[in-house]
Amino acid sequence: MNQDFETQLQVVQRALGEVVLPALGNADKHVIEQLHLSLAAIGFMQQRLPLARRYYRGTLQRYLAMAGAVATLLHADAKGLENQSKQSKAVLDDPAASDAELRAATAALRAQIAALVESSRDTPHEGALDALVLEHSEAILLEDRSWCIPLGFELRPEDLPKPDWQP
Amino acid sequence: MNDDSIRQHPSDAFIEEVRARFPTEREVDAVLTRKMHRRNGPSFQAVALETLVDGTQRLITDQLRYPVRIADARWLSGGASKLQMVFNLHWRGTESDGQTQVVTPMVLRMEPAASVTESSRRREFEVIRAVEGTVPVPHAYWMDPEAQFLPYPAMVYGFAAGTAKPSHDAGKVTGLGQNYGPELRAKLAPQFIDYLARIHNLPIGAPPVLASFDRPEVGSNVSVIRQVNAARRIWEEDRIEEEPVMAVVYKWLIRNAPPIDHVSIVHADYRSGNFLFDEAKGEITAWLDWEGAVLGDRHQDLTYAALPIFQHYAEDGETILVSGMMPEAELYAAYEKASGLPVDPTRIRYFGVFNRYLVSVLLLAASTRAARGAATHQDVLLNHVAGMGYLALSDLRSFFRSATA
Predict the structure, then answer these.
(1) Which residue has the higher pLDDT, B41 or B195?
(2) What total of structural domains would you count in chain B?
(3) A118 to chain B: closest CA residue
(4) Virtual CA dihedral for B197, B138, B328, B165, nearest 10 degrees?
(5) Which of B221, B253, B286, B330 suits a disulfide with B160, CB 3.0-4.6 Å?
(6) Using CA of residue B317, residue B318, residue B324, residue B325, what is the dihedral sign?
């Protein structure tokens, strides 16, 4: 069989786009639209599946860097985040870690950092913490935007920096 | 239970805790609470056209106290949130002698189990009634706000003629980045401004007009904070994962909420794609999607219309046109002139942040959650627009930084 998922997606895409879609000539507009969007979702997967692991790992690395900077700023107030960072780093270093585990390790860091941002209200380090989060988020969000380029929402995708996960 | 499961299968305690943490308007609270309880109920089932015909017929018959007939029912496409059916109503009309049968094209608008914008049919009905005669809107006939006759809350309004997309650029989803082209743009842009000015200058009548809307007080920022909390609450209820940037911005929005200087009806989704027009004449024929309307600050509509997700480049490849109409600065200047209401740069900044925060919530939380929970009739569309979430969040981060520098 064709073991690569890209081929599995490709055959579905061709069947839907070249056989099913032309046969729906007089169908309701929303039916045609949903088929186009389904094709777009399949096209997205086709392009991104081979890169997914690199993207997940890169995102986790960037959040570990953010978490490290937050922990340095907050010292003793960030014990929970330090513990989470150790766990997330272990996932990153584990070659057997699944994609879902990589994403969960990232999500846990994001949740801890957001909670610290919230609890820092009216504390002396609030301004510095907020600034640090905004600074570290810039590169992460640019990479996330690059990830979504196949969906077609970027006005000028060529202006985005080349992401780390792109070969 | 992980973070996601807590939200996908919320306990009563979770629902009540979130309600208490983020107090908002009465009707908004009711709608959001219903959404959370519904999440634990049966999953969304595709609704047959016949079910809608039957429910609509019973609703109208109940309201009119005589039997009516629905014919030519068919699905109506467009929009990312509600399920719509167009039909011809055979009835006695509003001005007939009681004997003559008239045929009126109408639209049933019903919410699915979840939506990109969870909203109140009661409020939508009330606000359309309030602005009718001031701006072109389809007449709101009847509503079923508690789903007594239909599977979910719904309303019936008149069918408005026109198109939402120009024939040369009809492929845009829900009008995002809609390009009307130079000729049509020149005709539509002045109307776009004029109608916004009219809406914002419309006097707010006393209840029962707009009875489901809490009244803001001039000089107070309480109503603005309620709105921020509504968005924050949706974030808490729907998000798939946390975003530290959102936590930073929320604190600022609460601290810097400006007092209201003039209470306006705020459409809250005023942009390209949300009006119908006659392509041959270049005339706007109807303003749609009033479901998110609030009583509040006009700057909310102004900055919403100018959001990057509704922009595109003009033919010169340099000029950015907001809502496919004109550059942002020109929009504000033209609005001031048309409305006689001042455009305050501080409030423009504030609501620029607020709208970006709200859009990030709707894309990264509400849309994503609804598609994930298989809760709508067009999960594939909500899943698609959710892909704009990082673009919205990236824009929020950049705009917030420049606005607070």
Answers:
(1) B195
(2) 2
(3) B247
(4) -160
(5) B286
(6) negative
The answer to whether the CB atoms of A134 and B245 lie below 8 A apart is yes
pTM of the model: 0.94
Using the structure block, give the residue that is written with the tokens 């005023």: B270
ipTM > 0.85? Answer: yes
The CATH code of the domain that includes B331 is: 3.90.1200.10
Q: CB–CB of A145 and B394 under 8 A?
A: yes
Q: Measured between alpha carbons, how far is B55 from A8 in angstroms, rounded to an integer?
A: 43
Grade residue B79 by pLDDT with cuts at 50, 70 and 90.
low
Rounded average pLDDT over A19-24: 91
Whether B299 and B337 map to the same domain: the answer is yes
Per-residue pLDDT reduced to its tens digit, B25-46: 999 999 999 999 988 887 777 7
Inter-chain contact B77–A30, Cβ cutoff 8 Å? yes
CB contact under 8 A, B388 and A148: yes
The pLDDT, as a whole number, for residue B172 is 61
Q: What is the pLDDT of residues A44-100, one digit of tens each?
A: 999 999 999 999 999 999 999 999 999 999 988 889 999 999 999 999 999 999 999
Shortest distance, CA A125 to any CA of chain B (angstroms): 13
- Interface residue A118 vs chain B (CB under 8 A): yes
CB contact under 8 A, B177 and A111: no
**Residue B105 is part of which domain span?**
49-158
Selecting from A111, A121, A145 the residue whose C-beta is nearest the C-beta of B242 gives: A111
Say if residue B146 is in the same domain as residue B186: no
In this structure, the answer to whether residues B327 and B371 fall within a common structural domain is: yes
**Single residue among B115, B140, B158 that ends a domain in this structure:** B158
B381 chain-A contacts, CB cut-off 8 A: 33-34, 37
